[in-house]
Task: structure prediction
Amino acid sequence: MLDTQKYISIDLIDPNPWQTRKGEDPAHIEELAHSIRNNGLAQVPAGRQMDDRYQLAFGHNRFAAFRLLDTLGIEGYHDFPLNLREMTDEQMAIAAYEENEKRKDLNPVERAYAVQKMLTDFSWTQQQVAEKLRIDRSTVSNLVRMLRMPEDVLKVIEEGMLPVRSAMALLPYYELTPLEASAVEAKYSGECEEFIELARSGVVNSDVIREKISKFLGFLHPEVPKLDLQDESQPIAEPDSITAAKEESRTEETEKPEDDSIHPGSETESIGGSEIPEEDKAFKVNTAYPLSDAKTAPPGDAKPAIAAEKPAEPEPVNNDILFTITWKAGGGVFIGLRKPGEVPVMRFRQTLTAEEAPALMGEMGIQ
Result:
C-alpha cells in the first residue's frame, strides 16, 4: 500500500513505542532545526495512525526540531508532515532500531534494552531477533547478558567510560550468587573490591580483568579447572589389573615350548645357507627374519637381530569435541569446552536457558 502523506498537529503525534533512545542531543536538535528552517525537510518521516492519534515509525530528531521551532513561536511548524503506512508492531520495532543503528544514536545499553524489549513483547527467540535485525546471534546473547550488570555499571557503559569488552569480562563476577560474592570478599579481603572498582573505571584492559575474575572463580570452584583436562598426546594409564594380565600373557608366550613341526630337532638350523650355532638357538623363535624365507636373511654370518616386541596398538585419537554444562547445587552454571589440540575453555553463568545455549555454543566456537 502506498504512503499517504498528511500534515498532523504535533500534539497528536507520539514517539515509536519501541524507541529506546533515552534522550536527545540538544545541540544536534538545534542545528537540525536551523537546517530545516533554511532548507526545508529533506525526507518526510513515516508513521501509522492509532485511533485518533499517530505514532512515529522513525524521524524522531526531525520531529523534535519541528517541536523546537514551534516552541520558539515560528509559524509553519505546528503541523508535522508524516507518511502514513499500515505497520505492525514488529515492523515498528524494527524501524526504530534500524533508524538508530544507521545514525549510531544508540549506546550499547540502549541497544540491549531494544533487543530485550523485542524478546519480551513479541516472544521472539534470540535467533529470530538476530535474523530480523541482521546481526550475529552471539551479539544478541551478549547484549541480553549485559543487562544483568548493576544499574550503576550500566550507567558507566552508557557514558562510554567502560568499554563493552571490559564489561563482558567483568560480567561473571556480577553473576555470582550473594553467598559466592561474600566468600570471595572474605577470601581476598579488600583486593577483590578494590580491583572491581578499578576495573569499572575503564583503566584496566579486558585481558587483565578476565585473568583476575578467573582467579576469583577458581577459588570458589577449584574442581572446575580440572574438568577432563587429560593431555591426549600422552598414553592413558591402564588399570593395574590390565597391566598384570598383559605381563602374565608375555610370560606364557616366552615359556611356551617350540613347535617341533615347525623347527625340527636338529642340532643346527640354517638361514640362507648359514648355520646358527647351538648357543644361538634361543634366537630362533624371535628372529627378525622368518626362518622360511631365506631371501630376508642378513648378509654373511651376521646373527639375526632379536625381533622387537610387537608394540601395543596406539590408542585411537579422540577427535570429538566435548561440551559440558554443569548446574551447581549452590547456584550457577559451568560450561566447559574441549577441542582436540586446544586449551579447554570454561565459562561461568548464573543461569542458562535452552534458548541461550545455542548462542553460547557459537560464542565459544562451536559452529
In short: Residues 224-234, 256-297 have pLDDT under 50 and may be disordered. DSSP finds 13 helices and ten strands in the chain.
